[in-house]
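=== Per-residue structure ===
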Amino acid sequence: MSAIVNEASLAEQIRKFGQPSLFVGENENDSPWVPFVPDIFIRHLAFDVRSNTFINVLWVQKPGMLGTHRHRGPVWGYVLEGSWYYKEHDWVARPGSYLYENPGAVHTLMVDDPKGMKTLFCLNGALEFLDDKGRVADTLDVFWFVDHYVSHCRKHGLKINEQLWI
């Protein structure tokens, strides 16, 4: 069966129900670097509260570790600068490396580059940080990341970029 597309009707539906496109420039006024833990910052790029999806750049400024964590949804990553690896795997992610993580994956992010790293991540679902006994110590989802961004902006008198909500 073939459907005939009525271009005028399609354009009307896009105008009525579609979301505007998003552009976040290099200017930090579009989205500042927000402290996460010492020497680690997050630049929030998009929040989709309907699907519990959040996109950001993780910047680890020097060698170190981001705790052991589990993803409850898929994660996509693309390395921009520096290098890092997961303690539980035998590969090293360098600029241009792409990764996909399945829901349920547990790993410990280790940064080995003296200059740190920056990686673009698209995360879906909650991120659970585990304690040294493997118990959930903290859960971060899209609402945690929204609060992380909004609280930082309010504290520092920065304009909240409402375009980040897609």
About this structure: The first strand starts at residue 33 and ends at 37.
